[in-house]
What does this fold into?
Amino acid sequence: MIGPGRAGTAIHEAAQAAGIASALTRDATDAVGCDVALIAVPDDAVAAVAALIPAGPAVGMLSGSVPLAALGGRPRAFCLHPMQTIQLGGGPQLAGAGAGISAGDAEGLALAGDLARALGMRPVEVPETARPLPHIACVFASNLLLPALAAAMAVLDEAGLGADRAALLGPLAHRAVDNALADGARVRPTGPVARGDTATLRAHRAALHDHDAELEATYVRLSEALLPLVGAAEAQRSAAALEGAA
It folds into this structure.
């Protein structure tokens, strides 16, 4: 496992828990004698690290964005992209997660699938021509949810309720995500934008502006992103309330 960061460490620990002999290193030349060398470094370093790996092991990477060509055209080259957000010290984090797998040949694809299953993940074949779209989907579903949640927690802090954020926001956020995943492309927002409730939108903006103008700006940007998901009449009314000053 080349790269002792969050993803590399999580894969290494999952491999050990599964009874797979695994070594975690920063040095690509340590792969001598290994069956598999798996690269877990920043995307812009993958090609350089791959070039340093000695001949012999199958070479894979965790990146969901870097083309397989970055691995140098080796036989059995593969990608195993954990579709999970990973934190250092977070304990087991991969079980049940999807794993996008791609490979340059059938042997590499089979290896990636077997490794994903051994680590407790569910492999999903991703054609090279489809990458990096699944990775982009993961960014939307994890990183890009955070501005809204961070804003929600900041507003609770302003109200003096920040200590109860998990109890107050957790059920709501989980329910909203579950509903959206069930609805798919027909996702149905609720709330003032979905109702075209201009009075509430203006009141929200005014309250936020009095506390933190940046929170108001975040509220406007995220509300505008909802407009294509609601009815035309409601979107038109809401857009009017989101324009200009509070």
User: Anything to note?
Assistant: The mean pLDDT is 95. Residues 141-242 form one domain. The two ends are 53 Å apart (CA to CA). The first strand starts at residue 36 and ends at 39.
